Amino acid sequence: MKTRNNFNNTQESILDTLDLIKETPVNSFFKQRVLKQLLQEKDLKESSFVWVNPKFQLATFVVLLCLNIGAISLTISSTETSAKEKFSEFDSFVEEYNLETINYISIQ
Fold it and tell me: What are phi and psi of 84, to 5 degrees?
């Protein structure tokens, strides 16, 4: 019986202490401040790609365009010189074996 009384006393003391707890006053603008801080933190997280702005994109485009134009012009010029070399080799081959004049006989 002592334990039951002791338990009841404990429950009552706990309930009494809960009654002593006062309600904490909350500022009416608390929610707005918290939401504002959350939005500011979100903005800071999104700003990791700030360096990819339009000026940087334009500069990158211009550099890549110049590189591509240079590569294409270099390829075209090397193709023209290699074609000239091939034709000169072919001409020397034709002259060496006297293949300039070939008589074709057509059978009709």
Answer: -65, -40
Burial profile 64-91: b = 16 or more Cβ within 10 angstroms, e = fewer? eeeeeeeeeeeeeeeeeeeeeeeeeeee
Per-residue confidence (pLDDT) for residue 106, from 0 to 100: 60
The residue to which tokens 């401040």 are assigned: 33
As a whole number, the mean pLDDT across the chain is 79
Structure tokens at 51: 């360096």
Phi, psi for residue 104 in degrees, rounded to 5: -100, 135
- Residue that is written with structure tokens 């500069």 in the block: 59
Q: Answer for the pair 100, 94: CB distance below 8 angstroms, yes or no.
A: yes
Say how far apart CA 9 and CA 77 lie, in whole Å.
101
